[in-house]
Amino acid sequence: MAADAAEEIRGTAHGTAPVPLSVLDLVTVGAGRTATDALRTSVDIARLAEARGYHRYWVAEHHSMPGVASSSPAVILAHLAAHTGRIRLGSGGVMLPNHAPLVIAEQFGTLEAMAPGRVDLGLGRAPGTDGATAAALRRTDRLNEGADDFPQQLAELIRFLDDDFPDGHPYRRIHAVPGPVQATSPGGVQSPHRPPVWLLGSSGFSARLAGTLGLPFAFAHHFSAQNTIPALDLYRESFRPSAVLDAPYALIGVAALAADDEKEARRQVLAAALNMVRLRTGRPGLVPTPEEAEAYVFSPMEREFVQSWNANVVHGTADEVRAGLDDLQKRTGADELMLTANAHGGDVRLRSYELIADAYGLPAPA
Predict the structure, then answer these.
(1) pTM (predicted TM-score)
(2) Contact 317, 351 (CB under 8 A)
């Protein structure tokens, strides 16, 4: 079982890429575009990623953000499963404290039945939104309690996924379906296989927990770059071999945007940065156009934020992005790079993934 689980987790690098390359999709919605447009772009990017040898395609859970249409990862993943055939699909991540563990086990058991052997379950403990929205999601204002209970919630979820609550446990006769219980029912032929669990984080808490449990770890370098190396070091130091992995495996999420020329790349990342300025100052909206960003008058404080933010976005021509990604991988020792291209237009995001694939000599489309 360990070998099978590890095989699903560890990817294969293609072309000249130093490690496997993957995609993180926020399903961004640009000004003048609809959520339908954004979801169609997600299908296009997933198909491109599959054709070009990207290893996996994850969708992140966010709420109450007009420019991010990924509030329901399981629904989006089901849609992507219907339009792809090989690429791994998963959550990057589902925010566990927002949901009952049984519900997540049922959703991802269903996804596993739709796309056998292709589904990852990435879990985070942050709300993926502001405090008021988190309170509405969880129907409680005791938000710290949810984060503090994360290890217990995780253990419960894994028990549901494996269908192995011990005798005497109040949930012993409760089963997540689709799931392993179907294999043990009379006439059952359901595969007992289940999606591998990943822990996500932007600080040390999940890094240590993932290491202690011997699980794969995904770090949010794209919005917490200053914590990347300390968190990866903590994960590796804490790692204990498990039935899942015999050695650490860590991927990092990286904001990366390639364009046909450097000036265009700068225009696009400026628009994405303006979107972050608005989000961080309580004015979330649709991703602005590059023209709107160029015309916007940034305050000194906003300009400082933009410079700091874009310093961690690998952007430029394809060759410049490749060099930046290579350097980042060497500095962090990441086992996999998961790229997220945030831009106003879906065509820009699609082109970025194509250019990066070309720069690394990833497989050509069949």
Answers:
(1) 0.94
(2) no
